[in-house]
Amino acid sequence: MTREPRSRAGQSKRPGRAGRDVPPADNIPIIHGVIPPRDVLLRFIAEHPEQASKREIAKAFGLKGEARVELKALLKSFEEDGLLEKRRKSLVRPGALPPVTVLDITTRDIDGELIGRPAEWLDDAGVAPAVLIRQSGGVRRDKAPVAGLGDRVLAKIFPAKERGGPAYTARVIKVLDKKKNSGMGVFRAMAGGGGRIMPIDRRGEEMDVDAEFTAGARDGDLVEIDVVRMGRYGLPRAQIKGVIGSVASEKAISMIAIHSHGIPYIFPGAVIREAEAAGPATMAHREDWRSLPLITIDPADAKDHDDAVFAEPDPSPDNPGGVIVTVAIADVSYYVRPKSALDREALKRGNSVYFPDRVVPMLPERISNDLCSLKEGVDRPALAVRMVFSHEGRKASHTFHRIMMKSAAKLSYQQAQAAIDGAPDDKTGTILETILKPLWDAYRIMTVGRNRRQPLELDMPERKILLKEDGTVDRVFVPPRLDAHKLIEEMMIQANVSAAETLEKKRQVLVYRVHDAPSLAKQEVLREFLQTLDITLVKGGSMRSNHFNGVLSKAKDKPFEQMVNEMVLRSQSQAIYSPENIGHFGLNLMRYAHFTSPIRRYADLIVHRALVGSLGLGEGGITPDEEAALDDISAEISTFERRAMAAERDTVDRLIAHHLAGRIGEEFDGRVSGVTKAGLFVTLPEYGADGFVPISMLGRDYYIYDEAHQALSGEKTGLGYRLGDTVRVKLAEAVPLAGSLRFDMISEGRKMPTAVRSFHKSGRRKDGASRRQPGMRPPRGRR
């Protein structure tokens, strides 16, 4: 994917950037001007991740001219062979830890040094690597945070230079959570009074509770505890300080996720006091736009409203058939100033986290649901962008404004869509001609531009859980995807693009939302899979989103459509925040920055401050200290976003496992959603839940794992299972606290294509590993 270079005036000397000069290790043989051997090159990349871009590698080995071309080809072959994968602009070894990650400090080594492990690690990725925490020596002695055993930290990761110990070392950037003598667990009552606290995660340990410290907890309650005594012998002792409720309730389930992922959910007193002391914004440095009929369109149950829209025909004779689209976003930067208590807490959280029963907000309700919520008929401060589009959907210009607005109407998606579809209600009927129809006219024009851009068009329906009054699952359903959703989405995307473009023009540093192209190794895995379906995927490093759209269109309305969508999704990189712009592959955009949700995303707040400061729009602009810290801030909020996603996913898994725990032995229709050497992952479409079928439960045959075909095939019978197959399974086990389900396979496998049956008859895979180890156990827990 071709990306335009961007001016970074004044930034090249910023400390901590990837391009700084770091002398290679003395023990790596380097002959300047000569392409190094494969093992030397791979070792250099592993030991110097900060110099792992093609440009820095060439510089380190003194390569110029033809030698650089040869190096580029060699590195590309490493990617194709799966020896390296591309992350942003750098090359890394597959499975390597990211350069900045969250660690839990779990133990000490024999020398007393602290050892941590990644806080988020997939069960099927093997044992989480150990990381040696470096805290002594160097010029940063007085600046580096001091961490201790049991702490959760954000750390800079480095490959270990000494062999025989942990594979990585780390420097602590920030202590996220200090060790506390408190936690959560499930109370199990014991005869004679008292009881035992059962851990809610695999790394926890059981604790004893004396009868006088049970606080009225009943068997099976989720409780908050204080550890009162840790001894060398016997179990630790705890006392219960609060009862959350039955572990089967949804409230308890979301609290488990909040606790296990270390999500801050209680606002400190200083933050609440600061929020409560805030008052209405003034008109200083603001334009009065209260007469412009901006409206909000949100989910029916939304409690905050941070974006409003309006559209009208462009009256300029130079733009016949064109439109002007206005997007106004709540001015959070006016209330949340750098280094304030509100700001520190918002950065600690990174984003709001959404569960079926609750929201853990980034900002207190006084800010998010009141002063910064664009309520109907109430004066509210906002940052607005006016965008002019031609009749062909091309953006001709845009301008940013700091305004005071008054929402003309608060609508739900369904309400706005019904009005456009010919069923207006009392509220939408009065604004149908003047506000809603012009919005839809503008959306149709913007759709022309979107279709020309061709972003990645994956069809992956999102399921929503509807709860009963008692907090248990009522049903799982897929909400309809309305044009009203698409309208707001496209207008927000264009507002985000405009923010990035304006800040680049001002040469202002910012936080981009970036999405790298799929690595060559992932492309090759997808290509091999598609070949089994007679679908081709072009080769080369200039892959664009429309190439994947071509694949998706060939699978449209075919039995394997969902399977292809899932495989294309798996091939994609993960979007992150970064001060370095590499574009957004999925949206097919060169410049993109999150601007439209500062109530719930810290990245958007940074962009708001950058706009206020660079455009001279008054108080609340970005500070030099913030600009210098954007590398670390970007790494933190990217990590916290992944944390939120994992917590939300775990809660849904636990909810469904609780819901199905009373249905052991029942049969369900499912679809194979994952194929591994150890067995099959099966999704129940009715619930959106995943469960595992161990390979030992597939039958008495000897099963061969074929990665290219995403299949398990019986060696004797030729019967097997492929990704996307519809199957019948029986629920054998449900573990609610782990959120895991185990199935037995009922359906007989189908006849595999000849290519699958003849796959590696020698009994070895391409990498030389055995096809299946007899008695192999499935991964623990969930995916």
Automatic annotation (TrEMBL):
This is Ribonuclease R. Residues 665-746 form the S1 motif domain. Keywords: Cytoplasm, Exonuclease, Hydrolase, Nuclease, RNA-binding. Gene3D superfamilies: Nucleic acid-binding proteins (2.40.50.140). It comes from Shinella yambaruensis. HAMAP family: RNase_R. It is found in: Cytoplasm. Residues 1-29, 754-783 are annotated as: Disordered. The keyword Nuclease applies. InterPro entries: CSD2, NA-bd_OB-fold, RNase_II/R, RNase_II/R_CS, RNase_II/RNase_R, RNase_R, RNR_Ribonuclease, S1_domain. It is an enzyme of class 3 (hydrolase). CDD domains: S1_RNase_R.
